[in-house]
Amino acid sequence: MIRNILRTSRWLARKQINIVPVAVRQNSCVLRSARSLNIQVSRQYSSPSDKVDSSDQVDQVVFEDICNETLESLCDYFEEIIDSSPNFKGADVTFSDGVLTVALGPKYGTYVINRQTPNKQIWLSSPVSGPKRYDLVLKDGGYWVYKHDGVPLHRLLQDEISKIVDKVEFKNCAHSLV
CB–CB of 154/178 below 8 Å? Predict the structure, then answer.
């Protein structure tokens, strides 16, 4: 890519055309090899820039508090589900060091929900839908959403667990949006 930029810039310099810097977003960088040619290269990101209420703008302490509240609430609710359902023989819930493990037995698999502090995300590993990374959205009291499909964490859990157990209500958990 850099080679193509340099070739193009040399061709434009020979034609004596002024290069106007391209600004797609405010997140632009100047390549080291292109500095001598005074070319500004823009970098586009897959996530929208208009998300003002995202987890990357949350204070670290606030993030950890919200994350712990969410995980502890999920832990308590999964324990209630397992205790009240005869479907889960040998099921177990453990929560330690920001990692919630919900083993529903060999028939239903294991859910792992953990805090990713450097990324300010919650990661989910589901036996049904696979791995997902959830970002904190600060609207409506705060909730966790998967940016690729817009589905909140608690709604996904609601959909998947309700196929196993009747009358599941993840909307009562902390920081949920179902």
Answer: yes
CB atoms within 10 A of CB 163: 10
What pLDDT digit, counting tens, does each position of 2-41 carry? 555 545 455 444 444 444 443 433 444 434 444 444 545 4
Order of strands across the sheet that contains 130-137: 92-96, 99-103, 110-116, 121-126, 130-137, 143-146, 151-152
In order of start, what are the domains of the chain with their CATH numbers? Answer: 2-42 (no CATH), 55-172 (3.30.920.10)
- Specify the residue for token string 């330690």: 96
pTM over 0.90: no
Residues in the chain, how many? Answer: 178
Q: Which among 50, 52, 28 is positioned nearest to 39, based on CA atoms? A: 28
